Structures
1.
Amino acid sequence: MGLRMVLAIANDLITCPDLDTTLREAVEAARSKLGLERCAIFIEHDGFLYGTYGTDGHGHPTDEHDLRIPINKVWQDRFDRLTPEDAQWITVEDTHFEWDGKQAVPIGRGWITITRIQSEEGFRGLLINDANISKKQLNEVQQEVVSVFCTLLGRIIERQQAEESIRRTLAKEQELGEIKSRFIATISHEFRTPLAVIQTSSQLLKHYHDRLNDSQKAVYFDNIERQIQQITMLLDNVLTIGQANEVGLDCDVEPVDIVGFCTRLIHEATFVSNTRHEIVFSHTGHATCLVDEQLLRQTIMNLLTNAIKYSPQGSRIDVEVSCRDDEIVIHVKDQGIGISKEDQALVFEAFQRAKNVGAISGTGLGLSIVKRTVEAHGGRVELKSEEGVGSTFTVTIPLTTS
Ligand code: ADP
């Protein structure tokens, strides 16, 4: 074991592609080249020491990633004893402990040496070396070599942590850029269809108003109104997701006549979607609930328009609302195309759509709005679905008073 060897190891570690590889190779080099029989590297991050890699009793490298030790008073006192003025390393002479995953368990008087991994910026972590098996402590000279190794390792770790932080920032920026482009492309595409219908209907009314009878005109006016509502819903969703991402959604509760409210929403959703479904509404419990009407409107409208959109004409949709003392539970149940098990967690993420949508258009925003608006109420949304059979969305919102 000598300084020349330490420099050769550091030279190899510098070229490791990432921090994880560096730590794994550092432990392996400490074992095979510096002859440390049992050692482990812990890295400091946000007030905790995280285990990385170590060697076991037979000298084989181990993965210690689930070790996470809070830097509490006991540990802080230990680190303070390792200040550079004091010493780069200490041998723990007192009873030593082994971490059993939950707590430090005393295993007798030990042969543990703790060496500080240090960079110019300060403390980076610890190399813990345990000579418990051979009971052969490193001598002063050998320990000095280990100290130099830890100092070089500290610098390499510092550089790699900085590089990883830059890589993470770049990846995040790239991801944000991609989300923005996808957002603009999806939204502009979804605006085009209603705008085209409005344009065609208004041109027909303008050029042929003298040849159209009242009921034909009513159809075109309805078309225009329907498409305007569609655009308004789309805009509401875009604004809500923007607000949810930037400042979070406010929840201002007020008494809402739940039967009248749901009946209006069912009419509106049926009108906007312009399809014939058998929508069956049932209500139990209190007539009035304390909820945020705007948020709940977006929750229910998105669930209803989806139930209509993803199930065949004429099929039945059940909307069941139960206002209890402490919570309101809403079920929206359809007999539509359903969502496969693997897509069920995904569809609540913005822009994610299930694989079976076929030609049915959509932005992939509705369910993320449902999730956000329900969570703003302190509630939760659950999905039960089977492909080809149908879906049931259940929203549960806690109520403070009714
Ligand atoms: P979209 O605008 O695509 O409908 P949503 O966020 O509202 O976006 O829904 C996300 C995806 O979840 C949809 O694209 C669809 O794949 C699936 N989905 C949502 N509701 C239903 C439903 N009632 N039946 C079947 N699939 C649904």
2.
Amino acid sequence: MQFDSDFSMTIDGQAVPGASTLGVINPATGAVFAQSPRASQDELELAMASGERAFKLWRAVPFAERQQKLVLIAERITEHAEALARLLVSEQGKPYRDAHAEVLGAAWWCTEVAKMTLPVHVLEDNATLRSETRRVPMGVVAAIVPWNYPISVAFLKIPAALLSGNVVLLKPSPFTPLTTLKIGELLRDVLPAGVLNVVSGGDELGPWITEHPGVAKISFTGSTATGKRVVQSASASLKRVTLELGGNDAAIVLPDADIPKIAEQIFWSAFTNAGQICMATKRLYVHAAVYDALAAALVACAKKVKLGSGADPQSTMGPIQNQAQYQRVVRLLDDIAHRDQKVLIGGKQSDTPGYFIPVTIIDNPADDTPVVTDEAFGPVLPMLKYTDIDAVIDKVNASPYGLAGSVWSSDPVAAAAVAERIASGTVWINTWLHLSPLVPFGGHRQSGCGVESGLEGLLEYTNAQTIVHMKAS
Ligand code: NAD
């Protein structure tokens, strides 16, 4: 199998080259390096019809057999992890070792979800009747995925949806469709036809899917603005929706934090994947007692970063994934310059080809400026000095976002007390981005609704069905 050419969609177990194609850009060069299929509405109809047929069969496949299929998916992905990771680097931009970890993480997620079961709750059991609630699948689940973690995000959704008896229509971002298409191709002989259809296309494809009456549930990960459009569109046929959206996560460093111990972790909480993570630290509140020490340590970390193509083994940070996002971050840098905000390091885009922006750290900007209030989704971090923890918690919770956050301290009790007051879906203490198939995560307020992962995430791919058995009198 070729991993650098011949990209096709997977519809009903078959390769579909697409009515037309879209160029895919390597963000390290800014040049088109491959063509991906651009689905027509007719091709989407084929995929939907295939999914609806497959659902009738797949939902009846014994649970243990569906678990086994997830293990086979994991094995197939693992066998081809190197080739998939190289392709992911070319389209997404991240360093190879991160891409490889992303691919292997997807396989691990399948293996772990395969160990889960769906509960049956007995509600009443007496001389007259027995009532129980069990979980039943919904139908065709549309999995809509962004460009920052194309494979991780897809595999937050696929194993849970398939295990619970749904079929999946997977749509990658038009910016990063290729690795996803190849995974679809790899799984054609692992899953029955129609159980996993993979369709790629332009900006028109997402709305076609969310409007389609045959879709039972939408699991969407992307920006808050798009999430709102998805909900509007889903309302026509009351599709179920899970939304994982944007964030403006805060890290709060308490005065007793051990700066030399935590500085590097805090640094990478903001700059992993060039800051293109929904759950990246996007505001760093640091107590005045340790502010200067942490600022110096973060600048030292920044100086060690090797910014470059993800294909270069020396690179530790890649480019911004696409031109539109690059321009958004450049506009933010222009705003920082225009306001004369103090830059500790960085502040200007690179003048090499590709969408490169160096690590940029801003020294104590005003609270109401865009570098603090907006989701940069790039390697730009505001450090904010505080002395009053209550005021900080109010500022953190005043954001329309409530995705995640972190607290850093040598005192676990003090840290937990702060964590419990942060109004977000996840708070990490002295760590960051601990995600696991066992742990549900999701956003509060405009960071989303519903959760992915864990038993709660699995249940979101099901409907509750209560059965009441009358007993013979
Ligand atoms: P986006 O909202 O532009 O696109 C996400 C996906 O939705 C893409 O596949 C896109 O093609 C599709 N889409 C676009 N318009 C659509 C429409 N009207 N109807 C249906 N689908 C549509 O987001 P992006 O720029 O790809 O990703 C960056 C954003 O995603 C950031 O805000 C980031 O915080 C967020 N994100 C959130 C999480 C999370 O788990 N909460 C994870 C990763 C990224």
